[in-house]
């Protein structure tokens, strides 16, 4: 799950609506969102296209929560309790208002420099975790001393509520050089906060979505943020532009290919069955093209989701049940590799791969197969026997999946 965080009015709900079919309420005032909104985004995966042209995207769920303001940990704004919804997020998208038209509380402003938003938002996320840790610290510390538990186990008990794998906690303990004999009762708030900061950095990789790039002031603010934080995890976007294009496409005024700068009107494509563009929409379209599409190549919203998924290094794996469909896939792929086209229209072929799973690096065949079988049959279904590649090569349960293992035959046993 990808979670959108940020100050009020940054455009979190707009981004959610732009990349999913959600219809979250959007408003030019702070705290439009109180209860979280959810939606499903479909991300394009090149490896899928190679497999079968009909399979080109996989679903990723997106969560949009209330806005955070500085001091949320002390109760400012809506506080930070709602961040508990982020516990299962795999990656965060920090939506930043790059236009400088809202201040840190999400109130209308002019010429506000959003560079500081990146830092204080991160601090608030850390405060959320630090606060949770601190609340239980005395009891945790006493128990640790009394039971002589391993440091990794003590911390894991505190961090498992964030969907934290023991391996991540063990790494954290290593990185911070914590010993099992650590006197946790002597830790002050600052020490706990340092732990929370290291944990948040490891557990919640974050993409910066610099939104509202359709605004003329965005350029200078983007430069400020990129020069401070680099451009590795920065994606530029305009949720508003995407929403406008989708709306015009839905009303049959334009043909629009999301993720590109391709827009056709009735004037461009007389045979496409498009309605003539009313002048109001024509000027909107023109400014979206000038300010967003032609300058940036797309509205950027799909790139935000793609960057978030890429941050996790997820890759697609298709589990199939029968040797026949597994081989069918192999044939289809070699036909595709030989340059045959038009596979999309075939009705036979490898159309049996209805389930595609995005897999985390480090996942073993066994873990994958067990989850897959559970998704098919529930808890009482058949167990995992073995797995093989389309060419019949057997894979052990302990084999760690790689992006080359795109198709996997799972045999129950
Ligand atoms: N110019 C411009 N305005 C945008 C863009 N995205 C969102 N907005 C506007 O920004 C305002 C706030 O948008 P929301 O999506 O409600 O923001 P939010 O972050 O969900 O706000 P809260 O729910 O209050 O936390 C609305 O007036 C949107 O139309 C954008 O890309 N460009
Ligand atoms: Mg909102």
From TrEMBL:
GO terms for cellular component: cytoplasm. The keyword Nucleotide-binding applies. The keyword Magnesium does not apply. Keywords: Nucleotide-binding. InterPro entries: G_OBG (IPR031167), GTP-bd (IPR006073), P-loop_NTPase (IPR027417), YGR210-like_G4 (IPR013646). One of its GO terms (molecular function) is GTP binding. Gene3D superfamilies: 1.10.8.470, P-loop containing nucleotide triphosphate hydrolases (3.40.50.300). SUPFAM superfamilies: P-loop containing nucleoside triphosphate hydrolases. Residues 1-257 form the OBG-type G domain. This is GTP-binding protein. It comes from Thecamonas trahens ATCC 50062. The lineage of its organism: Eukaryota, Apusozoa, Apusomonadida, Apusomonadidae, Thecamonas.
């Amino acid at each position: 799950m990808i979670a959108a965080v940020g100050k009020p009015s940054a455009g979190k709900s707009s981004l959610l609506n732009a990349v999913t079919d959600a219809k979250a309420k959007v408003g030019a005032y702070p705290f439009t969102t109180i209860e979280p909104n959810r939606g499903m985004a479909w991300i394009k995966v090149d490896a899928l296209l190679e497999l079968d042209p009909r399979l080109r995207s996989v679903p990723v769920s997106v969560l949009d929560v209330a806005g955070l303001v500085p001091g949320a940990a002390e109760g400012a704004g809506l506080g930070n309790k709602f961040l508990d919804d982020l516990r299962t997020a795999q990656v965060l998208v920090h939506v930043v208002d790059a236009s400088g038209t809202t201040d840190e509380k999400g109130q209308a402003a002019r010429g506000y420099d959003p560079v500081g938003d990146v830092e204080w938002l991160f601090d608030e996320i850390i405060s959320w975790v630090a606060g949770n840790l601190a609340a239980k610290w005395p009891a945790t510390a006493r128990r640790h001393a009394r039971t002589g538990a391993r440091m990794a186990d003590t911390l894991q008990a505190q961090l498992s509520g964030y969907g934290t794998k023991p391996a991540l906690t063990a790494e954290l303990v290593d990185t911070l050089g914590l010993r099992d004999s650590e006197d946790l009762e002597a830790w002050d708030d600052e020490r706990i906060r340092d732990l929370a900061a290291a944990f948040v950095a490891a557990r919640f990789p974050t993409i910066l979505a610099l939104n509202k790039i359709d605004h003329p002031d965005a350029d200078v603010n983007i430069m400020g943020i990129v020069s401070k934080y680099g451009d590795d995890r920065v994606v530029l976007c305009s949720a508003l532009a995407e929403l406008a294009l989708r709306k015009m496409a839905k009303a049959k005024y334009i043909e629009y290919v999301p993720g590109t700068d391709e827009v056709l009107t009735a004037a461009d494509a007389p045979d496409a069955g498009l309605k003539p563009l009313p002048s109001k929409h024509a000027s909107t379209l023109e400014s979206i093209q000038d300010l967003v599409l032609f300058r940036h190549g797309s509205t950027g919203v799909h790139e935000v989701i793609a960057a978030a998924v890429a941050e996790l290094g997820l890759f697609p794996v298709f589990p199939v049940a029968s040797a026949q469909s597994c081989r069918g896939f192999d044939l289809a792929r070699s036909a595709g590799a030989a340059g045959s086209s038009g596979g999309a229209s075939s009705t036979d072929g490898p159309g049996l791969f209805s389930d595609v799973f995005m897999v985390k690096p480090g996942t073993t065949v066994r873990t994958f197969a067990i989850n897959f079988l559970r998704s098919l049959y529930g808890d009482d279904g058949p167990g995992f026997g073995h797995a093989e590649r389309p060419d019949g090569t057997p894979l052990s349960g302990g084999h760690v999946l790689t992006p080359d293992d795109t198709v996997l035959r799972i045999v129950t046993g």
